[in-house]
Amino acid sequence: MRKNHFSPLSVIWICNLILLITYVIGGPSLSFLKSSILEYNNIVSDPFDGAISPIAYVPDWSKTESMNKSRLFESFDISDFMDIPEYDTELLADTVQKNTASFLLHYTYPVVYMGSYRGNYAEYDGSHGAIDIRAPIGTPVLSVANGVVVKVKNIESWDGKYVIIRHDGVDVDGVRETLYSGYQHLSEIIVIEGIKIKRGEVLGKVGMTGITTTPHLHFQIDKSTSPFHMYWPYSFREAADLGLDFFGAINVWLGKENTIRYTVHPMNFIKNHPFLSSAPKEMNIASETKQDSLVVSSEIIADITVPDTTTIETVAPKIETINPPETIAQTEIIIPAQATPVTVEKAVESPKIIPTFVPDATHIFSDIPVDSPFYAATKYLKKAGVTHGYTDGGFHPNDRVSRSETILLYDRLFNVGEVNTGVDIPFLDVLPSDELTQALTRAFVRKIVVKGKYFRPNDSLTRAEAITLLIRTSEIPLDTWKYSLFKDIKASNSHMAYINTFAKYLGIQGTNFEPNKDITRGELAKILYVFDQKKQKESK
Prior knowledge:
Blueprint: H1 8-25, H2 27-34, E1 57-59, E2 81-83, H3 89-93, H4 100-108, E3 131-134, E4 140-142, E5 147-153, E6 161-172, E7 175-189, E8 196-197, E9 202-206, E10 216-223, H5 236-241, H6 246-251, H7 256-262, E11 263-264, H8 266-272, E12 281-286, E13 291-296, E14 299-300, E15 303-304, H9 311-314, E16 344-345, H10 375-383, H11 403-413, H12 436-445, H13 463-474, H14 496-506, E17 517-518, H15 521-539
C-alpha cells in the first residue's frame, strides 16, 4: 500500500491553518494559547523586597516638543526628562482641573486600571485590567520586582511583543503568594526566558507593537489563579458575538468581574510594597457626628499587655449574638479596678517569626510558641472560631492587618449574624463572591463603614482606625468627655471619643496612644482577647 508523505512546507501550512482556526474560534482555545507559559519552577526568584515603577522617567509633557509621538527616546536630552508622576486616582478622575500636575498625570496614564477608552480616567468604568503608561519608543522598561522571566513573545502580532515575569513569595495580606507582572507592546526585548531578573533591571523598551494607537507600556499584574497570563477578559469571538469591537467591549465592562478576580491593581501594588518608602493610604469610617477620610500611617502599633493565660480554660469563647443596647444615658464610664492594669508601651518592631512547630493541641499555630506574647490571645481566638490562621499553619503575628481581615475578625467575634436588608454594598473593588462581602454588608448596613466608591480591602489599618471599628461593632456607649486621655491625640481628632471609650473600658494607662501606627495581626489579637474577656465577665 502506498504511504502518503507530507512535505515540510505542507506541514508548516497545516500548523498555521490549525492556529488560525483556533484563533478565530477564540474562547477556551485562545486562553490555552495565551497561557502557554513555561513556569521554570526549578528556578526560584530572589526574595521579594519591594517594588518600583516599570518606567522611571518620562519627558516633561508640558513642553510642546515632548508631545511629538514620533520622537524616539534617544532624541531627547537628559534635561527633557522628569520623574514619572505618581499615579493618583483622585487627580486623574478630575478631568475639569487644568493645572500642570493634572495635565502631566493625564498624559502619562491615558488608560487607568479597570478603566475604559472613553478618556475619562475613571477606574472601574471598564474592564481594562492594566495601566497604560505613555512613554517615547525606546524608553527602558524595568522589572518592578525580583522575579523569573517565564515568557517572552518577541514577534509582532495582535498582542505585540511582551514579557511576563513570575514573582515568588510576595506578601499579600500576610500570605506568601506568586504574582505575574506583564509588560506589553514592547519595541525591543532584552531578556530571555528562564533567567532570574532583579528589581530595576531593564527587560525591554517601550514600543507600539500589537493593537495600539500611541507608544505606551501596557503594565499588568496577574494573580496565580488567573487561567492565563497576561489575563484578558474576553476573546475576539466573544466580543464579536455581542456586536462589539476591541474598544467597545472594554467600554461595556465585558468580563469585568473576572478581571477584578484575576488581576491586581498594579500601581497600588507598587505603592503598598515600597522599596524605599511607604505611601499613605486612606480609609473611610463612619462617624456618629460626621463622615471623614482618615489618613493611615506606615508605622507600627504600641503593645498591650495580655492578662494571665489561665483565663483561657475558665472563660469560654463567646459565640452568642450581642444585640444593640437599649437606650443608655451617655454618662461618665468608671474605669474598672484591675489587679494588673493594661499599659500602653512604646512598640519595638520585632523580626519575622519563623514557623518551627507543627500545629497541635499545644502549638495552635506553627509560628506561635507557648512563650510567645501572642500565645494566649491567638489560642483563645482560635477556639472561638474567630481566626483560623493561614495555609502554612501560621498566624503571622508580625504582619500588618488589612481592612478586610479586620472586618471579618470583628464580624466573627461579635457574631453579628444575618442582616436582612436587600441592599448591595457600593464598593467597586469588592465582588459579590468574595468572602468579605457578607461581613462588609453587615458593617455597611450598621453604619460601621460608610458608603464610598472603593473599600480598598488590602490596605493596612492604623491603631486608631482599628479601635474605632471595634467600638462601633461592639456597640459600647460612646464616651462624651471633651478632652483626650492621651497627649498625642488632640480633642479635634475624630477618633478621640472612640479611643477614650476603649481606654476607659479596659483601664488602659499611658501618656501616648500612638494612634497613627499600623496595627499587626498579633497586636490586634491581644486587643480582641482582652476586650472580649472583659465583656464575658460583664455578662455573668
